[in-house]
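Minimal example, chain plus magnesium ion.
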Amino acid sequence: MVNTSELDIRSTISNNRLKGLWNLMAGYRWQYLAANLALGGSALSKTFTYLLLRYFVDDVLTPGVYRLVPLVAAGFVALAVFEGSMTFASGALASRSAEGIARRLRNYLYDHIQHLPFSFHAGTSTGELIERCTSDVDAVRRFFADQAVNVGRVVLLFIINFTALYSLNGKLALTSIIVVPFVVASAIYFFKRINTAYEKYQEQEAVLSTTVQENLTGVRVVKAYARQDFEIGKFETVNETKYRKGRHLMMQHALFWPISDIFCGMQILAGTYMGARMVMANTLSLGSFLAYGGLIVWLIFPLRTLGRMIVQMSTGLVSYSRVAKIIQEDREDLEAGSSPQAGIQGDIQFENVSFQYEVGSPILGDVSFSCSAGQAIALLGSTGSGKTSLVNLLPRFYEVNSGTILLDGKPLPEYSKGFLRSQIGIVEQEPFLFSRTIRENITYGLNRSVSDEEVYQAARSAAIHDVILSFPHGYDTLVGEKGVTLSGGQKQRVTIARTLLKDPRILILDDSTSSVDLETEAVIRSALENLMRGRTTFIIAHRIQTIMTADLILVFDKGAIIQRGTHEQLVAQDGMYQKIYHLQTSIETELEKEVKRARI
Ligand SMILES: Nc1ncnc2c1ncn2[C@@H]1O[C@H](COP(=O)(O)OP(=O)(O)O)[C@@H](O)[C@H]1O
Ligand SMILES: [Mg+2]
């Protein structure tokens, strides 16, 4: 397990972005102090180089004290070496700390996203999340690696060099900083503009990642429908928008530079001109003037950098907000509630349950029914009638809006979500396998060690054991991109084996057989029968044959139960069920006739 407990990042989030970033530095502040001190050391040695130059010109060369020359030369070398090592030390400290902070943030973010509720994931695109975990965290890292130390460096350089200048000549020093407010004002102006431009740019980048991600995930569909040109066109449009937003962003940076450079250049020119006049008027020594020439550059340079820092900081700040927004999302509490040691029986009762995702568009209205442990409940109804929504209420992926669901006579919210989910097994319409070995896929999520025999047993019941043995590495065969490709029916049987091992009291089969062919369906159906034995099962299917043995069949239309009963009862009733039944059986008899005719 990654250690994310070192800092509860959620509690450090602040709407004041600088404060939030300061909080993120927790545990690394000493390193930053040391990095800044090292920079101070390097700035000082640079300044002393110029002061030494003044001493050399005014006090060594002019009076001709030549025996001091080697000493002064050694001084220059020592200062250069010291300056270099200090710069290196601060860079190393800052980048190591920045990596550490970014790593901690990334880990926390990943951990946090795992704990966000279903509704968050349903409403956020994958591309957007990937973007925030990678590109945005990286912008925050750059903030700590570059800007956080450079601000210290800039301020130190400015203070030290200004003091040195002031010691040379007060009047000259004061006239050398007239430009400061102009540079700062233009930096602030561009900071705001870049903030907005970068925000838009990042948003567009997320759109681009989503487009790529969707295209790659759906590559089969794209190829099957020969939609490559359309997809390429779509990508180009999105990419073009990103290009334009990126160009606008770069334009802001590009405009800021020459403007601040003009200010800085004019300042150096004016200062040098004034200094030269003072030398001619004999109010300034030649050595001082030479030192001034060096120092003014190192006074204006940090000022220019400060502007750049302010402007670049906006990227870090915008990305910080984007990351902070996710961190501020509430986690799902998996612990609150009871987790009965004895487990559960599996009696379920829906009492006037109503549910909606968004206010104003009800999905389920006033649903009531009950079943006892071990029974099978079938849900039948057109697409969009709310079947999946209903079963998603059981593991509390979503909460009911009114009414109650009782499990063993107790309302669902009394059980902890973690416990409920450990008691419920779901076989979905689209089976999902990880790019790991088959064995790892079957034993996924089990908190106990299982023997090979147990795994084989589950696979046998799921009618997949022989198939697995036929693979080159048996149970150690990798699934997915780098391994074997399983057919839809095979994947489904692997997930059934997984669910068998989980051994849940309640089982949800959501359209588990709809995407496989008839022959595979027969195999899967027998595997499912093995799985259903002794468990309360909710089975959603379109084929009557799959559900006719259920203890209770509920026919749904627009989120309400319009018919209920056993197969025999419902077939005898005039209604939707009878209609579907006749339709399906007549199609099947037709098919059989066709087959017979073809054989003759
Ligand atoms: N996460 C969601 N957010 C908002 N609406 C949803 C969400 N999931 C499903 N719906 C809507 O709820 C309705 C019922 O969907 P669903 O329960 O999936 O039906 P079924 O499984 O019967 O096909 C549909 O109109 C669907 O658009
Ligand atoms: Mg569904």
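The domain at 348-599 is CATH 3.40.50.300 (Rossmann fold). The CA atoms of residues 16 and 321 lie 9 Å apart.
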